Amino acid sequence: MSELPTEPITLEARTLSTHPRWQLPLALAAVPIAGWLAGLFGQPPVTGLILWGLLALPVTVMVAIALILRPSNRRLGLRIHAEGFFYPAYKDSEFSWNEVEDVKVLGAGDGEAVLFALHDPPHGGGSRAVGVSRIFGWGNFGIRTDDLDCTVDEVAAAAERNFRLAKRAGRFKRREVSRDAEGRRHTVGFGTGRGLRL
């Protein structure tokens, strides 16, 4: 059995741009067409369109400039590091690894996702992330990478390694057995039997 690597993996992924890719090329192509209709490149094809070309030219130039200067609309979509991870599609604050009960990769091909089971999941959460875990019937939420600039394999490698390193480093509360007033045993802490009566 190979030894677990000791170095954590840091992964930062940004969301993909939500702007359609065809907008800028179309606006850039419209500028010379408007100039041609306005008669800037010689005799226009139809003399009655010169006025329309002159009106369209400043509009197409302004649209092209606005599309070139607009922000890319890309933002931080996922950060995984040694202390925990941040996934704003599910929760606005960061998770620490001791909040995670287990990490799994399920699915195949384009349907693959990294799923997380939490000790105490927050109420609500992103519907898309929760929906991924419901599809697979495991965990509290899942991460798909079709809207991130990384792959499922990269997310899985970073999440699984950092989770295992944190677990090995003792950042988790050990399972404890306690008894209630009637003498029944309860388990608390890390493990699959957490909170179940034994």
> What is the top-level CATH class of the largest domain?
Mainly Beta
Global shape: elongated
Secondary-structure arrangement, i.e. CATH architecture of the largest domain: Roll
Strand-residue proportion = 15-25%
For the biggest β-sheet, the strand order reads 1-2-3-4
Number of strands: 9
pLDDT averaged residue by residue: 78
Give helix and strand order, one letter per element, not per position: EHHEEEEEHEHEE
The share of residues in helices is 25-40%
Distance between the termini: 32 Å
CATH topology call of the largest domain? PH-domain like
Number of domains: 2
Major sheet size, sense and barrel closure: 4 strands, antiparallel
Tally of separate helices: 4
Keywords:
198 residues; alpha+beta; 2 domains; three-stranded antiparallel beta sheet; 4 helices; 31% helix
Protein described:
- There is one protein chain.
- With 198 residues, the protein is an alpha+beta fold.
- It folds into two domains: 20-69; 76-168, PH-domain like (Roll), CATH 2.30.29.
- 31% of the residues lie in helices and 19% in strands.
- It has four helices and nine strands; from the N terminus they run βααβββββαβαββ.
- The strands form three sheets. A four-stranded antiparallel β-sheet has the order 1-2-3-4.
- Helix 1 runs antiparallel to helix 2 (50-69).
- It is elongated, with a radius of gyration of 27 Å.
- Mean pLDDT is 78; it is low at 189-198.
